[in-house]
Amino acid sequence: MGELLLIRHGETTWSASHRHTSYTDLALTPDGERQARALGGLLAGRRFVRVLSSPRQRAIRTAHLAGLHVDATDADLTEWNYGEYEGRTTADVHAEHPHWTIWTDGAPGGESPAQVGERADLVLAAVTPLLEQGSVALIGHAHSLRVIGARWIGLPPSAGGLLRLDTATVSVLGHEHGRRVILRWNQPAPPPSETAPAQAARH
Hints:
Blueprint: E1 4-8, H1 13-16, H2 30-43, E2 48-53, H3 57-65, E3 72-73, H4 90-96, H5 102-105, H6 113-127, E4 135-140, H7 142-152, E5 169-176, E6 179-188
Parallel strand pairs: 1-4, 2-3, 2-4
Antiparallel strand pairs: 1-5, 5-6
């Protein structure tokens, strides 16, 4: 069986300032572009039977700079819709709603945990059969990828709150003795000086 790689996009201005970003289509910062290129070092030597990306430019650009060829975009890989909390920080929301958490409360005017979980399950249902042929890469966003990680191991969407995921990181889902497991989580790219030379685009 192949492995399922979850790749979070590089830094944007809003991720750097911890602002919730879903449908706002931001570009990578210069640091985000450097982070994305450095991901090539983690992915060197890997081949994928399928590479799927969120349609947001920050995800597609990250894939390109990391040396990946995106086979298709998938709307189910877009970030959690934060609704009225788009562009706001958790600290800002807590000033009005001290006990709010996206993992249990969802976002007003946006998505609930159950709705994001449904999207995660659709992604996993689509890619799991492909793992019999080899590894698959998914390029996306922090909260939605955390939910995919939780759902892979049979936990509810809210369990994604226990899986921190930083920008420009690689997480690996796989199997042990026939059971679904997390093989690696939130692995950052190596420093630029250790980054492998640019690779040809990889499937």
